[in-house]
Amino acid sequence: MKRVLVTGGAGFIGSHLAERLVGTGSSVVVVVVDDLSTGHVGNLARLPRNVVELIESGAAEGTAEAARRGRIDEIYHLAAAVGVDLVLRQPSEVIEGSLRNTRAVLEAARQWSCPVLIASSSEVYGKSERVPFREEDDVVYGPTTMTRWSYAYAKGMDEFVALNHRQRHGTKVVIARFFNTVGPRQSGVWGMVLPRFVGAAMRGEALRVFGDGTQQRCFCDVRDVAEVLPVLLRGEANAGGVFNVGGDRLVSIRELAEMVIRVLDSDSRIEMVPYEQAYEAGFEDVAVRQPDLTRLKRATGFEPRRTLEQTIRDLAAWLAEEDSPARGTRPRHGAPGGIG
Ligand code: NAD
Question: Which of 55, 78, 87, 177 to mutate to test ligand 1, by most ligand atoms within 8 A of the CB atom?
Answer without folding.
Answer: 78
